[in-house]
Amino acid sequence: MDMYDEIVLCAASSYERKFYLNPEFDALPESIRQELQVMCVMYTEDVGGILMVVFDEDGNLELKVDHKEDDFIFDEIGSVLKIKEMQQNRRELFESLELFFKVFYLGEGMEID
Prior knowledge:
Blueprint: E1 7-13, E2 18-21, H1 30-47, E3 50-55, E4 61-66, H2 76-89, H3 91-104
Antiparallel strand pairs: 1-2, 1-3, 3-4
Helix pairs in contact: 1-2
């Protein structure tokens, strides 16, 4: 993985009304995949635009938002609030996904206290 690479875990678009899960993550349990789908689709239904869940080069999970320049319906304030809410309410899920990615994709060993 190059220094500037990101790997998309999943994404949803209010424009295309589609959800995408990267096939490289098909090994995730069905319940996790469903939770990601519900989270992403609900976000795009509430505020519009595109939500991408990505891993950066260090394995940190990031929520990235984009919208079309001429999309005057996109709710920027609602987007910020919704992202903060998701980060708080799904902290455990996000931490587990980061650990999964670091172990299985970056080859880092699990640290035992």
